[in-house]
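Help wanted!
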Amino acid sequence: MDYVGTALAEMTMPQISPLAGEPIERADAERLAGVLKALADPARLRLLSLIQSAPEGEACVCDLTAPLGLSQPTVSHHLRILTEAGLLEREKRGVWAYYRLVPSAIATIADLLTPPRKRATKKAR
Amino acid sequence: MDYVGTALAEMTMPQISPLAGEPIERADAERLAGVLKALADPARLRLLSLIQSAPEGEACVCDLTAPLGLSQPTVSHHLRILTEAGLLEREKRGVWAYYRLVPSAIATIADLLTPPRKRATKKAR
DNA sequence: CAGCAGCATCGATCCGCCTGCATATCAGCA
DNA sequence: TGCTGATATGCAGGCGGATCGATGCTGCTG
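Answered by r_m:
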């Protein structure tokens, strides 16, 4: 799987219609599914939660392996997937790599799932 | 995978905290991930979209195989997963099985993903 | 400049799942 | 009752992914 990457960005821009009025395009479905796949994992959901609730809203790998009970390589793997999906951003300070939530990434996904009544009235299309 | 079933119902009731303040529990993470897994598939996203945009908001299997380009057993399989996840409801009328979206199921998921500031102010917990 | 610590990557294994074909069920109809 | 059509289920192939141990890389630090 590689189409995930800027997947979120690609979706928010062209304003795709997930569960909106008209049937979703196959390409859009694959992009949305790609991002949802990144979310659809217990370990990754907990990672997002842990990072979000961390002191400065950020956390390094070494802080996350213990709470999850997973090996460091595995945690690093999950963080990579979340980052490529556009949900996390990585900042390396010294030896540590700090991860934090991308501001409104998850909210964007929530919006995409939310029925049209609350979203922009899709006019021209 | 079997824990998905009334997964959505179980989640909405106890009011789990997905990406809210405190770190999510492993059990909650697994339930949420279960429902998200049901969503994280191009074919199933298109199914939801097709059903939602159908004439009466409902559709039978025979109406869905062609647009998806998948075999009837496969479509039936996906519909089963979506139904077990609590996203679809099935009604059999005669020989046909009509599927329709569960009213606010997807909106519930969107709410669970949306940060706490917009959700119910988690009081007692 | 060694030595060390934090992370990422690689290779391998194991498991889950998407898909289709074949088949079983079930309702309506002659 | 026997046949036909719409769905559901069983079975199996094949691929993607979750996980870990080993290893490579890169900044600190003494």
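OP: Thanks! One thing I noticed: Chain A has six helices and three strands.
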